Amino acid sequence: MLASGLATGTAHANDIPIAVMLTTNRGCGSDAVFRVGDATSYDFSVDRDATVRLHLDRPDGNLDYLSDFAAKAGVVYHVTGTAGNPVGPRTVTVFATAPGAKGQAVCSYTVVSQREDRSIVVTLTTNKGCGSDAVFRSGEAIDISFSTDRTAFVVLKLVGPSGTQLLKDNFVATAGVLYPVSITAGATGNYTLILDAGAEGRSGHIECAFRVVDAAPGPGTGQIGVTLTTNRGCGATAMFQPGDAINITFSTDTTAFVVLKLYGPNGVQVLADNIIATAGQTYPVTVTAGAMGMYTLVLDAGVESLRGHVECRLMVGTD
To answer: What is the mean pLDDT of the chain?
Structure first.
């Protein structure tokens, strides 16, 4: 989900609140794990001009003061570095102060030792994730993305009802780069993406399953006109950084029940669950960009025998 791995802080009692957003390039909490030597980035913002100080609590008891400067409201700042020894849990704290106002946010992560095995860590997903929630209609665009943690040769295949399609054949993938591949959903049925990576005696393997269903939006005798967009549109222009606000709006031309979902690297988040949307009214929904990757907003509307469906793709990444 987009909000996963994001820490939000507020002010102390008797102070005007300063909202502080804080995350790392791998989120916060148990899923935020770095190996010694990995690049780290602390990404944060404040909702008003303030003096900001970053503290890093290390497992050896040392406290590092990383930064102390004047931050502008709404600007996302990045403090980069490299994960080092000693291994163990770390806590980043952002303190924000302004005349009569305070706020802070805390984000924890873990540093572990470098890998000693011979594996290549690979990632593979679609704009609707993988598994039972990854359902596409025939003719719909499927946006695939993959990466490796070291430079390697990659073979990417799609296995489906009509056989096997080779999407990448001994492609050289650079370590840490997210590569996109777009295809069009074809015949209905179950599909599996298979990625194999190899380099210098090391190997990696991952699979991603999804399903293609009929292009029809479901039983119904008529259509509902629906709109769905973000403050940066949809598709190639819809680029956000971790911590950015994503302002979503939708509408229907018929009063109907609406379900709005967000599909992303961490699963599915229900943003609106069977709310009644009044015809012609624009509804806002705001989420915060979290984990990097491809996302798809999916809106379905229905009332009596009428149905409506629309999707909006976006990307969360870094400069």
So the answer is: 86
